[in-house]
Design brief:
Helix content of chain A: 40-55%
Mean pLDDT of chain A: 87
Largest sheet of chain A: 6 strands, parallel
CATH superfamily of the largest domain in chain A: Response regulator
Radius of gyration of chain A: 22 Å
CATH architecture of the largest domain in chain A: 3-Layer(aba) Sandwich
Oligomer: heterodimer
Largest sheet of chain B: none
Number of helices of chain B: 15
Radius of gyration of chain B: 23 Å
CATH class of the largest domain in chain A: Alpha Beta
Largest interface: A-B, 41 and 38 residues
Distance between the termini of chain B: 31 Å
Number of domains of chain A: 2
Helix content of chain B: over 70%
Order of helices and strands of chain B: HHHHHHHHHHHHHHH
Strand content of chain B: under 5%
Shape of chain B: globular
Shape of chain A: globular
Strand content of chain A: 15-25%
């Protein structure tokens, strides 16, 4: 038989494993992504950037596991147990699975993006973001930039970390209308009834195209897709239609930079600096100051913000830019309270 | 006796002999060909990974991880069995359909509907003891899954609507039905605006079998149910009249009808049985693994079940083995990500290659022409 031939690669592979075991002493930060994947140019990718930043700066090891479906959350977290100094779960939908794993393994440090436990769990640090503050600015900007008098938004799944973008966006438009006496309408989300357009997934680029097309057909010339990689489909549509007809507002990362092929379509992006909070959670675990609880990103601590206008810079009137700067300061000092 | 007749007689004698004593051909088909299929798939998978700039070291590491993550530890076995259980259950359902000549594409929808019914039964009825509540929730999954597939069976029997079309359409309906049900106030988890159900009560959860060793071992009572289902299907197919009728209809529907079998009844029965098994797979997921339902909780089990049934050649034992292989690939694939950092998409390609090669014994024989003396054995059981 051919066992000899079979045994050779196995032996070789075995030696490789021994070789890798030697480097297992380094601090290891592990991440479980939500569906959508690590290369989604937005949500998961930004969170992973926090780990890679920490790897570059501190020479630690980083690992990730991608979730394909909600059924993967628990086994993904489980298979990282034991080998990781800190496990970072990315996404509100992983809240239950993370809590269960944290309670079953009280010595393992966890941090979760977009979920706040009440009461807090001693070995879990929740990272949440006042994204509505930054989205408020984006809404104001969109209302000032629209030519058709209609802007649109749609979300992935109707969960708080998604709708908080849409809330802020709609309130920002309202505020513009109040200040200027205009009547710009927002399609796709009503912050009072909490009902709107949702693709019910964070994966389908086709949905991103279809939803943006529908909003465009209804007259929207600026669309805010809050659905991770789904928004890349919307960007592709805007690229085809031309930015005079349809502009996109990016989310999570500065999508002008993360989606270079379609960068021209982004008016701006609503930044949610998960990379910074993930990195600081890792650093806290490294130097022993890690504690469970809550970390909130705001405009004030630059946890959320508005990306530069890049190519659109010349298109945005200087007056509108300075108004947005003023509003940003007013939100920070409390003169304007978003959503209250 | 003409020459042709003689040749036929010889062929028949050869077949009879083979049945009495499995020759080297059968042994090759069952053991050597799958081994070579895996080797071929791993080599080809390695080449694909090389082509996408994965280093040789990472490829070696990832293959060790594939084995380690699927059978290398107690935790790995637990994950393999946990992943295999619903695949075997739903695969049995699809296989029953194949046996009777029905191509049931609807397992995914039946998993979803059965799972939803089990969740609703699982969070309702607080205060029941586990020995009543758990069977009740399982039974809800079985009945609703069976009923849902029975619709396709009834459409076939009453109107002649082809089951491939009707089961695909029932799948599409089930997706949206689940989305809708998860937003119904008494099902939706309170305080959430996204579609997610209440949690299954402790008294309806399939108990974990090994949590006294390590609380993270997920293998649960569904495993026992799955093994019972394998035995039940084997008994039904090969030891009962109804099983004989299923198989007879599958071999030749017209002959079966002329022999006095009621084809309409068989259609409905076989589809209901297939749906019941798929519904049980859904119940197994929500009561044993997920504890609640969310959109897409079926996670493609119903579609993988078709591959499992085909790979297992629609034989209950074959389905069990094929399901275990799929489960092992799922658990091992996760470990490949953890240990070697290979992208999930590449892992999917390697997994698919392994399955494709095992499903194509003739291809393996062509790739490795030496070492195989006999020709491929008959595909039919």
């Amino acid at each position: 038989m051919d066992f000899k031939r079979l045994a050779k690669p196995a032996l070789l592979a075995g030696m490789m494993v021994l070789g890798s075991a030697a480097s297992a002493l380094a601090f290891t930060a592990c991440q479980v992504t939500d569906t959508g994947g690590i290369d989604d140019n937005g949500f998961n990718q930004t969170a992973w950037k926090g780990v890679t930043d920490a790897m570059a700066e501190h020479g630690i090891e980083g690992r990730f596991l991608e979730s394909q479906a909600a059924t993967d959350y628990e086994p993904n977290i489980n298979s990282l147990l034991g080998g990781c100094d800190i496990i970072i779960t990315v996404g509100f939908l992983m809240g239950d699975a993370t809590a269960a794993a944290a309670q079953a393994n009280p010595d393992q440090k966890f941090s979760i993006v977009d979920y706040a436990y009440d009461p807090t769990i001693p070995n879990v640090l929740g990272q949440v973001f006042a994204t509505d503050q930054a989205a408020f600015l984006a809404g104001y900007l969109a209302a000032g930039m629209t030519k058709s008098g209609t802007v649109g938004t749609f979300g992935g799944i109707n969960i708080p970390p998604v709708t908080v973008f849409m809330d802020g966006f709609a309130w920002g438009v309202d505020y513009y209308n109040q200040q200027k006496g205009t009547s710009v309408t927002v399609l796709g989300w009503d912050p009072d009834t909490k009902e709107g357009l949702f693709t019910n997934n964070f994966e389908s680029l086709d949905d991103g195209r279809t939803f943006a097309q529908n909003l465009y057909d209804e007259g929207a010339d600026i669309v805010l897709p809050v659905a991770g990689p789904v928004g890349l489909g919307s960007a592709a549509l805007a690229d085809e239609l031309g930015t005079d007809n349809l502009k996109i507002i990016g989310v999570d990362a500065d999508q002008y930079l993360t989606n270079p092929e379609k960068q021209g379509v982004y008016l701006t992006s609503i930044l949610k600096q998960m990379d910074a909070t993930v990195k600081s959670a890792i650093e806290a675990a490294m130097d022993g100051t890690f504690a469970g609880g809550l970390e909130v990103g705001t405009l004030e601590n630059a946890g959320v913000g508005l990306a530069p206008y890049h190519d659109m810079d010349s298109a945005v009137p200087a007056e509108l830019k300075s108004e947005i700067e003023t509003i940003k300061q007013q939100i920070i000092d409390g003169t304007i309270s978003v959503g209250m | 006796m003409s020459e042709q007749q003689q040749a036929q007689t010889e062929k028949l004698a050869h077949q009879l002999l083979q049945r009495a004593a499995p020759s080297r051909t059968v042994y090759e088909d069952l053991i050597i060909v799958p081994v070579f299929a895996i080797v071929a798939a791993l080599i080809l998978g390695g080449l694909v990974m090389l082509a996408t700039n994965v280093s040789l070291e990472a490829i070696g590491k990832s293959y060790v991880a594939l084995i380690y993550g699927s059978v290398g530890s107690l935790g790995a076995w637990s994950e393999t069995l946990t992943a295999a259980t619903p695949l075997v259950l739903a695969g049995l359902g699809v296989a029953m359909g194949f046996r009777a000549g029905f191509f049931n594409i609807g397992a995914e929808g039946q998993v979803l509907m059965g799972g939803m019914a089990a969740v609703i039964a699982g969070f309702s009825f607080a205060g029941l003891p586990i020995y009543i509540h758990l069977p009740l929730a399982l039974m809800a999954g079985i009945l609703v899954g069976g009923f849902y597939a029975g619709i396709a069976g009834w459409l076939r029997a009453a109107t002649g609507a082809h089951e491939v079309i009707s089961t695909i359409m029932l799948n599409l309906i089930s997706y949206r039905l689940v989305d809708y049900l998860l937003k119904v106030p008494f099902i939706q988890k309170s305080g959430r605006s996204d579609p997610i159900s209440n949690a299954v009560l402790d008294s309806a959860q399939l108990p974990r079998l090994l949590d006294w060793i390590d609380p993270n071992l997920r293998v649960h009572g569904g495993l026992i149910i799955m093994l019972l289902a394998v035995w039940f299907c084997y008994w039904l197919l090969f030891k009962t009249t109804i099983g004989f009728e299923f198989r007879a209809s599958g071999e030749n529907a017209d002959a079966a009808r002329f022999a006095g079998m009621r084809s309409g009844l068989i259609v409905v029965l076989v589809m209901a049985l297939a749906g019941a098994l798929a519904g049980l797979a859904g119940a197994n997921q929500v009561l044993g693994v997920l504890e609640r339902a969310s959109p897409g909780f079926s996670a493609g089990i119903g579609f993988n079940a078709i591959s499992v049934a085909l790979l297992g050649r629609s034989h209950p034992i074959g389905v069990l083995i094929a399901g275990l292989l799929f489960g092992a690939l799922e658990a091992g694939g996760r470990q490949m990500q953890v240990d070697a950092g290979v992208s999930l998409d590449l892992i999917g390609i390697v997994q698919s290659l392994i399955i494709a090669f095992i499903a194509a014994p003739l291809l393996v024989r062509a790739v490795f022409p030496w070492g195989f003396r006999g020709k491929a054995a008959s595909r039919k059981e």
